[in-house]
Specification:
With 56 residues, the protein is mostly helical. It is built from 2 helices and no strands.
């Protein structure tokens, strides 16, 4: 199979990120902030739900 299209796409993506490191870093930090916040909320809800069930 020929993967030239995928290879060119990822080469362009990597070169774009390397040329615009500051923008990529800011986008990465924003992305990780929202993902980690969402995971922390789910974890907190799970822990609170677990302790409130066991106390009853």
């Amino acid at each position: 199979m020929d993967y030239n299209t995928t290879n060119y796409f990822f080469q362009n993506l990597v070169s774009l990120v390397l040329e615009n490191r500051l923008i990529a870093a800011v986008l990465w930090i924003v992305f990780m902030y929202f993902i980690l916040r969402k995971i922390a909320k789910k974890d907190n809800d799970y822990i609170l739900n677990k302790f409130t069930r066991s106390n009853k």
